[in-house]
TrEMBL record:
Protein's name in the database: Thymidylate kinase
EC number: 2.7.4.9
Residue ranges annotated for the Thymidylate kinase-like domain, each copy included: 16-206
Record keyword Transmembrane helix present: no
Family annotation (InterPro entries): P-loop_NTPase, Thymidylate_kin-like_dom, Thymidylate_kinase
ATP-binding listed as a keyword: yes
Length: 215
């Protein structure tokens, strides 16, 4: 007996996560359109980025050399502006926010990938995401889990690599482990998507998971 349909995801914050090439961007539009067809306002955004200031910081982070602390501080500075200027106002007016990456990526890339101090990242997370109702986190995170070797094959012809996409496969194995650690620490917030399947099969996984929530 399926559960009664839950309220639509109005005012919900949903993030897509996974290593480069896992297939996040390939499915974001379809999920946004699923809710727009039902008359919901959907704010589709990304990190680093989402506001003019945060997009400027994104360009620096993706293309300028810097040490791990500088990188983490710029990413969280972008996040603060993105939360205040874009995400929080959208959620307050009842829109669905669909974000391509959020803080899980920081723990995966800067924490696990670069070996940056997780305690410092946790402190920055608490400062930047503190809101009236406590820590502002996504209500649901779809983790597109994929073997880095498969992701690398997909990216070979896809696009000019940025600073992160130029990292070696061992880096992306650490990033994948970093995502798994966040998934295991917060199982109630995450859904793992098997991103190794075909594009259509991944779309079926996503639709089934959302239907189960009545979304
Ligand atoms: N399930 C899939 N199987 C094979 N190739 C895929 C699949 N999903 C996406 N791709 C391809 O892999 C590349 C990366 O996909 P993309 O959605 O940009 O990943 P991400 O946004 O996670 O970096 C693109 O060329 C895309 O066409
Ligand atoms: C949000 C975030 C992204 N990143 C990295 C992951 C990605 O390689 C890169 C963002 O690029 P990405 O999201 O893959 O966009 P595009 O599809 O245009 O390449 O930034 C971090 O290292 N830390 C973070 O906190």
């Amino acid at each position: 007996m399926s559960a009664a349909p839950l309220a639509p995801p109005s005012g919900r914050f949903i993030s897509f996560e996974g290593i480069d090439g896992a297939g996040k961007s390939s499915h974001l539009d379809a999920v946004a359109e699923r809710w727009q067809r039902r008359g919901l306002e959907v704010v589709r955004t990304r990190e680093p980025g989402g506001t003019p200031l945060a997009e400027t910081l994104r360009d620096l982070v993706l293309h300028q050399g810097m040490d791990a602390l500088t990188e983490a501080l710029l990413i969280f500075a972008a996040r603060r502006n993105h939360l205040q200027q874009c995400i929080a106002p959208a959620l307050e007016r009842g829109a669905v926010v669909l974000c391509d990456r959020f803080t899980d990526a920081t723990f995966a890339y800067q924490g696990a990938g670069r070996g940056f101090d997780l305690a410092v990242l946790t402190t920055l997370e608490s400062w930047v995401q503190r809101g009236p109702g406590g820590l502002r986190q996504p209500d649901l995170t779809l983790w597109f889990d994929l073997d880095p070797a498969v992701a690398a094959q997909r990216l070979v012809a896809a696009r000019t690599p940025d600073r992160f996409e130029r990292q070696d496969e061992a880096f992306f194995h650490r990033v994948r482990d970093g995502y798994r650690a966040r998934f295991e620490a917060q199982p109630e917030r995450f859904v793992r998507i098997d991103a190794s399947q075909s594009r259509d099969q991944v779309a079926v996984q996503i639709a089934a998971m959302l239907a189960e929530r009545g979304w």
